[in-house]
């Protein structure tokens, strides 16, 4: 390693100025490797990298000429010269035997370590070495596809892309990343594209020791990208000692040729879907439709479209009936093309649950989804919702915990676990989990409001008020919601101060009237105010409108005063629940 304090940019033997590489990224690009690999070469193999300290910061640089000299040394080792062997044969024999024994022990230890089975893995975002920022979505998409292929194999826990993507463009040491994600191995690499040619370099690294277990380079045409993904996933599986069944081999053997532009449109759709905003969801739908037009035989475009419509009722003004009908239509098209698509089965499960209120059919589809991909974090998460609605709280918490284990840095998954804990009556645990959610994503306003419900059910109305107001501040800052709704939230504190809990729930009614589907929330407030007739009326309206929120009716403790009413019991049965 070069001396930290030494600057070799001056002096009689210094390389010329244009020989200099000015950053880790330039060095990595010159060597056609990713930054982490180059940093590892400096630490372990004396790659000549220099540092110059200035003020409180420092910069790194290297010289092409020195790197080429280092490369030449790496390619050849000096011959071992033995003199006077005839006079010192005993001494040299002992040295050779000792050396051979040491090498044998080292190789045995290395082999032993290599053969330690790997059961948990994370695929880090590939680094875009194309020199074209517009290729980032394609780089991310390829990372996502490799992750998905591995996740479908079973026998291996694969961390979700949502958590792995947090390490994009960071240079944390591999052991630290492995500890934070709780995995035994990490896959990292790089992506380059020139015209329709793609080159991907992949490395498998043991997390605890930062040891390279395997590395490979793949060259493929963009139209054969499926084959490249499958080859990478197959090779990784092989090197983590995962014995593939015949079904798993079939998962990786894709014969369907793709249209390169359709594939890029599909990846753009995935990119915008992940942003989960009103604008981005409409962009995602646009790209998925383009992918379908160009390649109508690829089920993934339809599955992506279905997933967009599934979240539209909760994030846009689209009605739930319209959104879920479109989601089911897209899911059905996907399943007609590929009945082994977990994404399509998951979409069908959600529609059966939220639109058809067919809980038995939804559970069958959730189970089918997880049979196809046990590492599907979103499937565990949404299955947990069904289990909550049907009162199976312990099972629900287990599913949400399984989702979190696969996606530990996802704010959404933390939020769903918190909601499951709250509905199971574990309020303190729920509050802790809501706070973790907000540590990960302070802009997830719903976490404040759902945490307020946990406080409310405990009778901690002052804490509930603080959570509601914190959420209102986030809404004003990030989402520009209806000012009247924000004003109603801000007035809750004075209403509570003046008239206690009655004032709190009266003001809550004013807040909830501004929601897109207010009836269910109004029914809860009226119940707490003792106005049972009005509460029943609002519940009937929620049922008749087929609001997704009506599915909470079976388990919501805030509706407990209504449970003895025959009209309430009739609504519960009509939805499909059994008491």
Structural description of this entry:
With 579 residues, the protein is of the alpha/beta class. It has 26 helices and nine strands. Strands 4, 5, 6, 7, 8 and 9 form a six-stranded mixed beta sheet that branches. A three-stranded antiparallel beta sheet has the order 1-3-2. A hairpin with a 4-residue loop joins β8 and β9. α16 packs parallel to α18 (411-423). It is elongated and about 90 Å long. The termini are far apart.
Number of helical elements:
26
Shape: elongated
Radius of gyration (Å): 29 Å
Based on helices, strands and strand pairing, what is the structural class?
alpha/beta
How much helix is in the residues?
55-70%
Q: Summarize the biggest pleated sheet.
A: 6 strands, mixed
What integer is the average pLDDT? 84
- Give unreliable regions as ranges: 1-13, 77-87, 108-114
The count of DSSP E runs of length 2 or more, i.e. the number of strands, is 9
Gap from first CA to last CA = 71 Å
Q: How much of the polypeptide forms β-strand, as a percent range?
A: 5-15%
Topology, pairings included?
Elements: E1 20-21, H1 24-31, H2 35-45, E2 50-54, E3 57-63, H3 64-75, H4 89-114, E4 120-123, E5 127-128, H5 136-151, E6 157-158, H6 161-164, H7 174-181, E7 185-194, E8 197-206, E9 211-221, H8 225-239, H9 246-252, H10 260-275, H11 278-294, H12 299-315, H13 320-337, H14 342-354, H15 359-372, H16 377-389, H17 393-406, H18 411-423, H19 427-440, H20 445-457, H21 461-478, H22 483-490, H23 492-512, H24 519-528, H25 532-544, H26 566-575
Parallel strand pairs: 4-6, 4-7, 5-7
Antiparallel strand pairs: 1-3, 2-3, 7-8, 8-9
């Amino acid at each position: 390693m070069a001396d930290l304090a030494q600057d070799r940019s001056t002096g009689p033997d210094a390389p010329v100025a244009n020989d200099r590489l000015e950053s880790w990224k330039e060095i990595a690009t010159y060597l056609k490797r990713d930054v982490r690999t180059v940093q590892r070469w400096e630490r372990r193999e004396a790659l000549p990298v220099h540092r110059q300290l200035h003020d409180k910061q420092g910069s790194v640089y290297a010289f092409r000429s020195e790197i080429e000299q280092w490369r030449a040394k790496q390619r050849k080792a000096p011959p071992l010269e033995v003199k006077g062997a005839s006079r010192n044969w005993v001494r040299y024999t002992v040295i050779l035997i000792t050396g051979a024994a040491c090498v044998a022990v080292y190789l045995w230890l290395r082999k032993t370590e290599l053969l330690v089975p790997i059961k948990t893995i994370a695929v880090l975002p590939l680094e875009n070495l194309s020199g074209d920022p517009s290729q980032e979505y394609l780089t991310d998409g390829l990372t996502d596809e490799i992750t998905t292929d591995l996740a479908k194999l079973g026998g291996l826990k694969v961390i979700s892309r949502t958590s792995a993507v947090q390490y994009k463009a960071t240079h944390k040491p591999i052991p630290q990343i492995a500890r934070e994600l709780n995995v035994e191995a990490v896959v990292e690499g790089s992506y380059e594209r020139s015209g329709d040619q793609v080159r991907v370099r992949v490395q498998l690294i043991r997390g605890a020791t930062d040891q390279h277990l395997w590395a490979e380079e793949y060259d493929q045409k963009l139209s054969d990208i499926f084959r490249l993904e499958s080859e990478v996933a197959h090779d990784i599986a092989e090197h983590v000692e995962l014995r593939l069944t015949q079904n798993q081999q079939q998962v990786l053997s894709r014969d369907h040729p793709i249209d390169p532009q359709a594939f890029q449109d599909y990846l753009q759709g995935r990119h915008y879907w992940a942003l989960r905003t009103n604008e981005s969801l409409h962009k995602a739908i646009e790209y998925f439709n383009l992918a379908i037009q160009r390649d109508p035989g690829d089920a993934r475009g339809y599955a992506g479209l279905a997933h967009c419509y599934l979240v539209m009722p909760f994030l846009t003004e689209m009605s739930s009936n319209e959104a879920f009908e479109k989601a089911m239509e897209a899911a059905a098209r996907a399943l007609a093309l590929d009945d082994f698509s977990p994404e399509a089965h998951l979409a069908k499960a959600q529609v059966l649950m939220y639109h058809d209120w067919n809980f038995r059919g939804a559970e069958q589809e959730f189970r089918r989804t997880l049979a196809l991909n046990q590492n599907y974090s979103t499937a565990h998460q949404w299955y947990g919702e069904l289990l909550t609605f049907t009162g199976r709280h312990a099972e629900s918490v287990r599913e949400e915990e399984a989702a979190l284990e696969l996606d530990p840095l996802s704010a959404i998954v933390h939020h769903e676990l918190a909601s499951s804990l709250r509905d199971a009556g574990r309020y303190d645990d729920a509050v802790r989990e809501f706070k973790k959610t907000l540590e990960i994503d302070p802009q997830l306003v719903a976490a404040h409001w759902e945490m307020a419900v946990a406080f409310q059910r405990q009778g901690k109305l002052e804490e509930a008020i603080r959570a509601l107001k914190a959420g209102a501040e986030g809404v004003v800052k990030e989402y520009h919601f209806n000012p009247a709704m924000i004003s109603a939230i801000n007035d809750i504190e004075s209403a509570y101060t003046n008239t206690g809990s009655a004032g709190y729930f009266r003001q809550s009614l004013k807040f909830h009237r501004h929601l897109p589907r207010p009836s269910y929330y109004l029914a809860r407030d009226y119940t707490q105010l003792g106005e049972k007739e009005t509460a029943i009326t609002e519940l009937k309206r929620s049922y008749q409108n087929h609001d997704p929120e009506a599915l909470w009716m079976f388990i919501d403790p805030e509706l407990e005063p209504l449970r003895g009413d025959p009209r309430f019991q009739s609504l519960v049965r009509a939805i499909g629940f059994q008491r």
